[in-house]
Amino acid sequence: MKILIAPNAFKGTLGPLAAGRAIARALKKLAPGAKLELLPVSDGGDGLLETFLFEYKGRGRRVLSVPGPLSKPVRARWVMAGDTAVIEMAEAAGLKYLLKKELAPLDATTFGVGKLIGAAVAAGARLVIVGLGGSASNDGGAGCAAGFGFRLLDKRGRPVPPGARGLLRLERILPPASAASLPRIRIIALTDVDNPLTGPRGSARVYGPQKGADPADVVVMEKALLHYARVIKRELGIDIKDLKGGAAAGGLGAGLYAFFGARLTGGSDFVLKRMNFEAAVKRCDLVITGEGRFDEQSFSGKAPFMVARLARSYKKPALMVCGSCAVEDLSSLKGCGISGVIALDTVLPLSELLGSPASAMTKGILLSSDIVARFLQPIKLPRRSGGRPLK
Question: What is the pTM of this model?
Fold first, then answer.
């Protein structure tokens, strides 16, 4: 039997590679005769760098000190292989750098992302892949543009303050000295949302509260982004207000489109094609994927859902391993290609899952051997309680 192990990151605990290795350790005990293939995946958020480093066999890892979401320097990882650079925006402007009491949704900036793009271009990148996810900012990508060298000025010709609040003062946009390099590079922005920049489904109203915005902040944020969109249309001739996917990463999707001519695309599809995932599915008998929390949002282009859907197209069963499962009607998952779910929090305490995530994942799968056994026939496994089988 050939088993393809293809997890996403388990946010806040394990990257996709570490998660895959933990799953593999369990399978080596449960099915010692099986041939295992590990292929970590991402939808453009957490784990994107790991996925590409796996493809590049660990080559190309770089680190750059850049201003973080509140301008305090952070050490941002990125990848450079040949003429391709890979950036996770959260490495420069992520929520992960801020404690709950430090959240400042009106002032946080994507300035450091622009610095990373500039470093990639200076290093010779012709293609820059930017993963959008985990942002602390709602500045519409204005900070990213400023970090690259664009001048965003108020009516007196002074640089506007960083963050969404500063956009209310924006009046003029001047190109950077390095503008001549822009036509020579392609930027692909990976997103798992299709929300527009503004409006009821926009960045402020939908994602602002996730970054700590209260109702009053959301009103200011929406007003600022609407003004920002009007100035961009006047100064650059580009309409971003209703751009599909423009809300991604606090509007960074819209900013990358406006200032860099980026192409916005579904992160899961892009990564799976890049990794030649379809060929791996064809040569396996079982697919095991996973993520930290499996809920309704997982069906909106998240990597594990796309993995399962592709497996289903080739009539291969897919088993989901997750930290927790909030999907009530598990029987409905069969139509999506998910044939079984192992929710680790049903067999292990949360303290163990968070304290020793890798070993806990291996242990949780072993405790759910009754679910795994249904996919490994004719291999006989000891029957144990646990997990959440589909009825």
Answer: 0.90
